């Protein structure tokens, strides 16, 4: 690995949590297989059938207690703690495995299962139990709490901070994502545009493999610890 890497941006997707036992979205057992996306991950779905949407996320939130971080999450947390330069971990995942592994410099661009968002006042509150529709917001009191998940068609969180970090990056690493969903799938192109080295770690080639300087195929639990060893050597 080049010696002149100072600033790193790492994007993760469902593949990094697969070996912890959480289903990915587009694999054979994908979450979306069980549910039509239109049924559970759009503002229209939430308005049309709040009970179904809340139940879908309640099921996923409840699963978090039964899974734990895997060596890939742990390696990234160790890198975060040890890396002297800038480092930003951007996850598309809504599970809490990165933070449970100890990651600090972390952004959940698609929201978090363990957070509820008030559709009236915009306040986000930590939430670990089930979240029935019409739950009252602890801030404004209105019964408008919803899952704090960025639905298709909604703006992901902290896009300015993410874009700034990528524009300063010397290395951009994409881990466990199919490259099927924008804007995350476009980050590699911004990284290339600013001259960052681009590396993909994935089980299969992603839709964006073409854009990466290097693609390493294999399970994250093997490839990520190996990459962190290279970076910290
Ligand atoms: N190690 C590494 N990669 C893996 C592993 C593994 N053990 N298992 C699966 N993968 C890879 C798959 O090859 C696939 O390319 O992880 C990727 C998972 O892709 P998706 O299921 O599409 O998940 P993701 O890319 O995170 O989806 C992006 O789409 O549905 C929306 O908002 C949702 O954040 C999600 C976004």
Describe the structure.
The longest helix has 14 residues. The chain has two domains: 144 residues, Rossmann fold (3-Layer(aba) Sandwich); 81 residues, SIR2/SIRT2 'Small Domain'. The chain starts with 7 loop residues before the first strand and ends with a helix. A six-stranded parallel beta sheet has the order 3-2-1-7-8-9, sandwiched between helices. A three-stranded antiparallel beta sheet has the order 5-4-6. The protein is of the alpha/beta class. The chain is 34% helix and 19% strand. The site of adenosine-5-diphosphoribose (APR) has 23 residues, from helix 1.
Q: What is shown here, in short?
A:
The protein has 233 residues and is α/β, with parallel strands linked by helices. Helices cover 34% and strands 19% of the residues. The chain has helices at residues 15-18, 31-34, 37-40, 43-48, 50-63, 71-82, 97-101, 159-168, 187-193, 220-232; strands at residues 8-12, 87-91, 106-108, 111-118, 124-126, 145-149, 171-175, 197-202, 214-217.
CATH superfamily of the largest domain: TPP-binding domain
Count structural domains. 2
Helix content: 25-40%
CATH topology-level fold name of the largest domain = Rossmann fold
Secondary structure category: alpha/beta
Calculate the mean pLDDT score and round it: 94
Provide the gyration radius in Å.
18 Å
- Note the main sheet: 6 strands, parallel
**Morphology call:** globular
Beta-strand portion reads 15-25%
